[in-house]
Amino acid sequence: MNWQKIAGVSFLILFLELLIIRLLGTEIRIFAYLGNLVLLAIFVGSGLGMYFKKPLPLSASAVLFFLTAILTTTKYILRTPRFDVKLFSGISELLSPLSESYIWQTLYTFSKTGAVFGLLLTGTILVLLAISFMPLGNLLGRLLDKHPRPLIAYSVNIMASLAGMWAFQLFSLAEFPPLLGLIIGLAALFLLVEDRLERYFLVAVSLITIAAVAPKISLQPYEGPTTFWSPYQKLTLSPIYPTKVQLPGGYYLEVNNTGYMGLLDLNDKHEASASAILVKNRFALPSELEFLNQYTLPYHFKPAPENVLIIGAGAGNDANGAIREGAKSIDAVEIDPVIVRLGKQYHPNQPYQHPAVNTIVDDGRAFMERTKNRYDLIVMGLADSHTLNSNLTNLRLDHYLYTQESLIQARKILKPDGILILSFEAPRPWIGQRLAKTVTDAFGYQPIVFEVRSDSAFGWGGYFFVAAKDPELLPRLLSEKPELTNFIKGHEKSFPPLTINSSTINSLTDDWPYLYLDRPRLPLIHILMALFLAGTLLVIKSKFLRSAEFNLPMFFWGAAFLLFEFQNISKASLLFGLTWQTNMIIITSVLLMILLANLVAERKLLKPNLAFIGLIGSLALQLIIPLYKFNQLSTIAKLIGAGIILNLPFFFGAIIFAYWFANAKNRSAAFASNLLGSAVGGLLEMVSFLTGIKSLLLVTIALYILGWITANSKFGKINKR
Hints:
The protein is of the alpha/beta class. It has 27 helices and 15 strands.
């Protein structure tokens, strides 16, 4: 039946979309920071496919999914006199100098030839992705056009998309590798194809893909480097093979193929032997040794504390340090459940098995907002995830953790004599300056800042930012501890007020949380990729789709919808945490609102004019009501109240969309215009880099108004039945 095919192709588009975004972000790491561009390329491809009236061969998608698998697993080596990189997997190295937003562990060596080549490779991947989804979009558009009841067909599309999204999440929770998902996607394509020759071709491509990627798929742990797939990232666990005599035993954990953390055996025997080597090699003075262990250092400021909170607890090194220093109760908060599990299974000192440790799998900011406990010491470790939280925003998992509002909340949950110790790596001076300024703004005075390094004997070290709730506490404490005072003076790190292009380094706030962007600006790499997508779209339109209908109201509606959805995920993250559960709940709520709106439109319970008033009114309400007010409510009240306020515009907007879609002369063209508009709305999200997140709401309102005006003018009416 027609609705079954609509369900099948809708399910497959969402499932493969999320799967490919994850695979590319893992194996070609630049896409972990540009994941929304991958999503937008897929939107463009799906939309363009709907413009073609003749069937496009689904086997073309099979070939390109196969290429995606090959490009992300094969190590091609490119050598020139200027650089030596891996093709595709080396794009991050080529483009990182173009990115004003710092990318961890990439070589900062600029080559004009390399940058141009990297942009061409990135553009090639985006074009391949768009082309690979064109046959799927083409099939969906033709099915929607044929269905006698358009809103029923659209509702089936929404429900199947929702199922595809949750299927991918369950796939991720089961820790299956994305390459396995591509093989499943090829099998699903087989069910959608009716032509016999195409089926034979699909079988051949599937067998070749399985043969190519099967060696890369591991479902069972084995001795040596072992890969695990968490809801957020690819994790690779490897035994430590000492290259220096002072290195501890244990394991290294990589995230998305780059160094991330250690599971370190920091016992008394290792501490004694490593300390002797550091002194012998003249790396440290004997008087400095007791302060070089970054995991026990906080307890020189607060000995044997009653209550400790560790944010970004990782696999357990910080918890182990707290146990060794006599902490009575330790709340260890880590967002990634697989990292916690690996810590419980593999950490040599087994800190998460200790009765004093309470492990909490949650977003650190959300936990601080909810907890009723008060702490003697809060330890904030380097929480960067090397990846984005969501492919619908430009936020990383740690962005809201280091804002003024977050640190003010940390100050609130400290006891009167409590201390915050924030450790971080500052590979650029402006990162250190920004953190120092943000801590200063949150606590009201400048923190103590110093550097700790142990030549990897006790971890990788970093910069420590120390502030107390009582401004007079730290001077008094240091006056009583001359050894600690001398160590801090000897390793003090000064981050003087810096300017970049005459702009003073700004603090981090919930409205502008971009820790790794040097200053408010539109990043060059985002601009270049946006111009590339727009240029490609114009070329395709002029060369292949000259006579294709373009529904301007639907275009604006799509742009406003996706831009608003991006904002909602950011807002919900502030209320409920920057976790995968938050993303899924928000997106699910949006799709359920659309289904409810379809029902209202099908039964004509609310006219479009009234729906538009409700849409603009509900958006204006978000401008008036401060988001932080919801955090003052109980969990249930916050869930209900924030859920209604945040999602009500989707309901009213979807009612209007349903009326337009049902009455469109060419439904596939209307849907295509909406998808292309969504791509533009996604690109507009980068405006928040320059102006902050709140300003996007004004842009959203402007787009909805433009859509409404064009729908009620000659530009919109020509596309109606």
